[in-house]
Amino acid sequence: MADNKGVMVFAEVAEGKLSGMAIELLGCGQKLASDLGQELSAVLAGSNVSGLAQEAIAFGADKVYVVDDPLLADYQTQTYVAVMEKVAKQVMPKIILFGQTTIGRDLAARLAFRLGTAATMDCVALAIDPETKQLSPTKPVYGGNARAIFAYTTDPQIATVRAKVMSALERDASRKGEVITIAAGLDPSAVKTKVLQKVKEEVKGIKLEDAPVVVSGGRGIGGPDGFKQLEELAKLLRGAVGASRPACDNGWIPDSAQVGLTGKIVTPELYIAVALSGSSQHMAGCSSSKVIVAINKDPEANIFKEARYGVVGDWKKVLPAFTQKLKELLAQ
Ligand SMILES: Cc1cc2nc3c(=O)[nH]c(=O)nc-3n(C[C@H](O)[C@H](O)[C@H](O)COP(=O)(O)OP(=O)(O)OC[C@H]3O[C@@H](n4cnc5c(N)ncnc54)[C@H](O)[C@@H]3O)c2cc1C
């Protein structure tokens, strides 16, 4: 383990820019690197991505490894794992961080297997143990009901990090760093899949994962009309509407609104849970919200154990009154 050094971040690129997740990871990686007294590097992999190297430096990277190849234009598991394996074996970092994104989840676990090490998924806190100098990741377990801290016995120590739990650094365009190009060395015949079409998910208003306020409805909402009332409240608070799985399964709201273990993970400032019971599978997607407010007619509902504020009552009476009061306050 002694030969591995430094912290490496896989910097995802979205629509020609560093993703928000990449910027958060650079902030978190820089803190870990300085606690270790070592460098932070970023890996930029893709097609036509070399122009983003300075941006990664401005957000905290000391070194940027650029792997620019037309075969990396679309994310594909085979090509990206091969590239990350090559970079990791060449650079030998002590820690490698990915975002808890579709790509990060896929890559981290596969890379850990290739490198004979372990990955801790969906971390909400990362620190360097002052005694062992090893990465000490914290992640929610048992559907978000408890938090566990893990320890590694192998290098590199790989972790995926949940969005919005780490602070990005202020962009500093004057920061200096080194840019190193690494050839992808991919054999085109080894690429077994082809991306034929990409369909962008239509989002009305603010994206659920980015919203500072989420108003979520559950089975107790009873139908699509109820969700229109949640939309009105979300709009007033400049937020987005989420839902529990039964509400999506019933077709009251698109599946893309599902929050939870098998849905989206959100970390808003305010999560308003309306007529949902607060199952562990649902809480796995929202337990890191700063403040949870619950409206439920059942005083024994689990959501009241999770919420900071709660109203016991029928949402059909509570929500209109709440929305009306809010309108009055906003008009002042
Ligand atoms: C592998 C697996 C993965 C899963 N993944 C997810 C996931 O990602 N997300 C998810 O949400 N679920 C998920 N589930 C389902 C989960 O177990 C629960 O069944 C689900 O979260 C319950 O949704 P709910 O709270 O809307 O419904 P319920 O548990 O039926 O709760 C409805 C609530 O509404 C309240 N209510 C009813 N009428 C009113 C009213 N008029 N006014 C006020 N309150 C009212 C009731 O008191 C009750 O508390 C998963 C399950 C499994 C097995």
Choose one word for the global shape: elongated
- Can you summarize the main beta sheet? 7 strands, parallel
Give the CA-CA distance, first to last residue. Answer: 61 Å
Strand content: 15-25%
Mean pLDDT: 95
> If strands are numbered along the chain, what order do they take across the biggest sheet?
7-11-6-1-4-5-12
Which regions are unreliable across 5 or more consecutive residues at pLDDT < 50? none
Number of strands: 17
Category by helix and strand content: alpha/beta
Order of helices and strands: EEEHEHEHEHEEEEEEEHEHEHEHEH
Number of helices: 9
Share of residues in helices: 25-40%
- Cofactors and ligands: flavin-adenine dinucleotide
CA radius of gyration is 22 Å
Word description of this protein:
The chain has 332 residues and is an alpha/beta fold. Helix 3 packs across helix 4 and helix 5 packs parallel to helix 9. It contains nine helices and 17 strands. The model has no long low-confidence stretch (mean pLDDT 95). The strands form four sheets. It has a seven-stranded parallel beta sheet, sandwiched between helices. The site of flavin-adenine dinucleotide has 28 residues, from helix 6, helix 7, strand 16 and helix 9. Flavin-adenine dinucleotide binds next to helix 6, helix 7, strand 16 and helix 9.
